[in-house]
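Sequence in, structure out.
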Amino acid sequence: MTETAELCNNAAPFLKIIGVVLLVVKIAVPIILLLTGAIAYGSAVISNDEKAMKGATSKLISKIIAAIVIFLLPYLLNTLFNLIDDYAQLGKSYKACWNCVLKPDTCPKTETVSN
């Protein structure tokens, strides 16, 4: 077993927790941003204030962009790392660890020792 594979196996529970947290953030934060933006926009529309509607529209657009960036951030980071030459050599070794973070259900199962 290579050193990297052993590291990934030993860190699997921690990487799985990070993956689950990342998954929750990746889904919950965009939903919260979109809901708060829609509520603010709805209240501006109900008030019939043209200036408030323009402000709410720009805030809603900003929140939509932020939601998309947050959702795609892990994939953007992966693409960035793949563009770096040194990472390309190490990337194959660390792919199991990275996959464990991106897809927590693919983490290696840790064996529990029973007495």
